[in-house]
Specification:
single chain; alpha/beta; 4-stranded mixed beta sheet; 3-stranded antiparallel beta sheet; 7 helices; globular
């Protein structure tokens, strides 16, 4: 929850993070982008710790760099990114319907390399396609502003090789979007 990181109005202390998964990183990214879009300046407090290095490695800060209203001390994380073999896919932006196909194909290749069978990868690709399509279809943004983010990480659960695939968009959310549609507003 980004609100737990907000130490002052529009000041987020990322040094407080003890851990974060791909979906958490994407949720935080989208929260910050929405806040900045609403004409609010945002300051991030970061450190050269493992979590901030991880966020750098998955391109979290790269996706924030376009937003002039978000600032942080960029000198802190200069240098090379950490080597983390659990990161299957850094944050990728999908900006058009069908844009998820390339990402899904890349993810399928990565999953094969991790020992996952093709049916698992194809099922994930279908789910990714549906979620990205929903984000593009139901976004209230102009076509050029629509975006959906994807990231994936591998982890072990006991003896099982598992993955987390995070998908998020900075939209209003399904309940708020449906209320704006006269067919579903009740």
């Amino acid at each position: 929850h980004a609100d737990l990181l907000e130490v002052k109005k529009n000041v987020f202390d990322l040094r407080l993070l003890a851990q974060i998964d791909p979906y958490g990183a994407l949720s935080l990214l989208c929260t910050l982008l929405v806040r900045a879009k609403n004409d609010k300046k945002i300051e991030l407090l970061i450190d050269d710790n493992h979590i901030c290095q991880y966020l750098k490695t998955i391109h979290f800060f790269y996706h924030l760099e376009r937003e002039e209203k978000i600032s942080w001390d960029r000198k802190i994380l200069q240098g090379t990114a950490i080597q983390d073999t659990s990161i299957l896919m850094p944050i990728n932006a999908i900006r058009a319907k069908g844009g998820e196909r390339i990402i899904a194909e890349d993810l399928l290749i990565l999953l094969r390399q991790q020992g996952f069978k093709d049916p698992v990868g194809r099922a994930i690709a279908v789910i990714l396609g549906e979620l990205a399509d929903n984000a593009m279809t139901h976004s209230q943004e102009s076509l050029s502003e629509r975006v959906c983010y994807v990231s994936a990480k591998r982890f072990l659960w006991g003896e099982s090789n598992c993955i987390i695939v995070g998908v998020a968009d900075p939209g209003l959310g399904i309940p708020a979007t449906l209320k704006k549609n006269s067919k579903y507003s009740h």
